């Protein structure tokens, strides 16, 4: 029997396109309808309405189980509505009607959210309320900094820890996932996401910011419980492919803000710091990165500004561990490090609002309480 088992969810928004993905229970054809949207102001019942005559239908190239339909020719910073539809023989399955929005132009303020560790370590994994809270902050997109599932090779995990709890949010808010060790470099990671090849590392522009996601698990393997360098060519160690990719990527960007995200934290207090990742810091510093998001430690932690391995209030980079969706506070080894500015071991997410030269970062807990704020300002 045909049904939609994951999604629909959004991926890879650009100024003129958005990718819609979903999975069906059996092999099926796939089609997305997209409509222009008109706001309607009618008191308490006010809501956007689709303009029926603007409907466009885009069909997937071939039938399948996991569907990917790229909607092109859209306008920047514009809201539309869409509906995903699949058919197999005489059966048909259609999603609800959801809004989507293209990326904003360079000069337009925007906001995004950051979380990770939805796979968690408790029996329940993610605190499901977090995704609902994230939605209320209306981010344009979500960065997931790895360990979104507990075992990436376990197909069921992807629904249990990510797509089921995130269903409502992902229907209208695209997410970018960078791999953590728990993704296990599984084929599902590549099949369920739509970042460009090689998919595990990529970069994109959004507004006046440049984002670079890396797979920090490549080139490291566990020995005696600690990740140690393997010398793999696709790793992040000096000279390896992702090191060179990041160097060139940051050098080429003229964005006002440069934000890099990868799973293993070069700086975090407690027990899960991955010191080998500090090999990337000179590249981040030379490339002008402002903020780095990491995870792996199930805690919130914001560093002081760091450059060349020491405090630098003028040119330092701030490292934020946003390992919060499945946080279990008892996992936190309560020891502060010299680089720790703020730490709190509670389920949380981070919300970042960028408006020209001003960046505001807020950390919010499971009850919606704001517990940390950082404001950065670029000199004019
Ligand atoms: Fe991890």
Describe the structure.
With 380 residues, the protein is mainly beta. 12% of the residues lie in helices and 38% in strands. Strands 1, 2, 3, 4, 5, 6, 7 and 8 form an eight-stranded antiparallel sheet that branches. A seven-stranded mixed sheet has the order 12-13-16-17-21-18-22, covered by helices on one side. The protein starts with a strand and ends with a strand.
Summarize the structure.
The protein is mainly β and 380 residues long.
Question: What's the layout of helices and strands?
Answer:
Elements lengths: L3 E8 L6 E21 L10 E2 L5 E4 L4 E8 L7 E10 L2 E4 L3 E4 L8 E6 L13 H8 L4 E4 L10 H9 L3 H6 L2 E3 L9 H6 L9 E5 L2 E5 L6 E4 L2 E4 L11 H12 L4 E5 L19 H6 L4 E4 L5 E4 L2 E2 L2 E2 L6 E5 L17 E5 L3 E8 L2 E8 L4 E8 L3
Parallel strand pairs: 9-10, 10-11, 13-16, 16-17, 17-21
Antiparallel strand pairs: 1-2, 2-3, 2-4, 2-5, 2-6, 6-7, 6-8, 9-23, 12-13, 14-15, 18-21, 18-22, 19-20, 23-24, 24-25
């Amino acid at each position: 029997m045909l049904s939609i088992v994951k999604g629909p969810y959004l991926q890879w928004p650009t100024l003129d396109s958005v990718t819609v993905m979903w999975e069906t229970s059996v092999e099926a054809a796939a089609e997305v309808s997209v409509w222009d949207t008109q706001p309607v102001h009618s008191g308490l019942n006010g809501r956007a309405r689709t303009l029926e005559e603007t409907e466009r239908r885009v069909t997937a190239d071939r039938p399948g189980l996991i569907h990917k339909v790229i909607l092109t020719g859209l306008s920047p910073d514009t809201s539309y509505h869409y509906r995903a539809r699949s058919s197999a023989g005489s059966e048909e399955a259609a999603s609800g009607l959801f809004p989507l929005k293209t990326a904003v132009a360079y000069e337009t303020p925007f906001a995004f959210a950051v979380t990770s560790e939805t796979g968690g370590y408790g029996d329940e994994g993610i605190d499901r309320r977090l995704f609902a809270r994230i939605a209320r902050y209306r981010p344009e997109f979500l960065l997931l900094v790895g360990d979104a599932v507990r075992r990436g090779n376990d197909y069921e995990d992807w629904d249990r820890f990510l797509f089921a709890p995130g269903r409502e949010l992902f229907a209208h808010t695209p997410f970018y996932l960078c791999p953590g060790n728990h993704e296990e470099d599984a084929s599902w990671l590549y099949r369920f996401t739509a970042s460009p090849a090689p998919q595990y590392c990529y970069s994109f522009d959004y507004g006046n910011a440049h984002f670079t996601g890396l797979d920090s698990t490549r080139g490291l393997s566990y020995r005696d419980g600690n990740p140690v360098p393997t010398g793999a060519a696709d790793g992040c160690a000096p000279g390896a492919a992702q090191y060179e990719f990041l160097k060139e990527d940051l050098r080429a960007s003229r964005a006002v803000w440069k934000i890099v995200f990868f799973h293993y934290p070069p700086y975090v207090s407690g027990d899960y710091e991955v010191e080998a990742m500090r090999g990337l810091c000179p590249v981040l510093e030379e490339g002008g990165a402002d903020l780095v998001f990491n995870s792996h430690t199930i805690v919130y932690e914001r560093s002081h500004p760091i450059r060349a391995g020491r405090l630098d209030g003028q040119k330092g980079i701030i490292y934020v561990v946003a390992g919060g969706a499945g946080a279990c506070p008892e996992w936190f080894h309560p020891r502060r490090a010299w680089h720790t500015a703020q730490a709190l071991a509670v389920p949380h997410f981070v919300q970042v609002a960028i408006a020209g030269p001003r960046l505001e970062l807020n950390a919010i807990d499971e009850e919606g309480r704001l517990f940390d704020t950082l404001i950065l300002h670029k000199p004019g």
